[in-house]
Design goal:
about 100 residues, mainly beta, 4-stranded mixed sheet, about 0% helix, about 50% strand, globular
């Protein structure tokens, strides 16, 4: 599987981290990617940043290569006044695409 952080709507200033099947954390900044070898079957992907996290469960079939794009959504307009409190609303999205080897 390959995990990328290169979506054009990403709030590139925020750092994120991902973990596959409860394994090691991989830190991401905008433009980075990592490829992890997976066996066919059920897996989980945890993606997060300082305030928001998301866990998804997915299946990988034999001969399949799963690709995920992590997107840190920019802050919601109109909430800039909260940045002084170190709270900036946003979210983490996980997009999936898959191809056969």
């Amino acid at each position: 599987m390959t995990i990328r952080r290169n979506h054009p709507t990403d709030a590139w200033r925020r750092g994120t981290f991902v973990r596959v099947d409860g394994g090691a954390n991989h830190s991401f900044t905008f433009g980075h990617s990592v490829t992890i070898e997976l066996t066919p079957g059920r897996h989980s992907l945890f993606a997060g940043e300082s305030l928001f996290q998301r866990t998804i469960r997915f299946d990988v079939a034999p001969g399949e290569h799963a690709e995920f794009t992590i997107v840190c959504q920019p802050p919601v307009p109109g909430f800039g006044f909260l940045s002084g409190l170190r709270f900036v609303p946003g979210s983490v999205r996980v997009l999936r695409s898959t191809y056969r080897k």
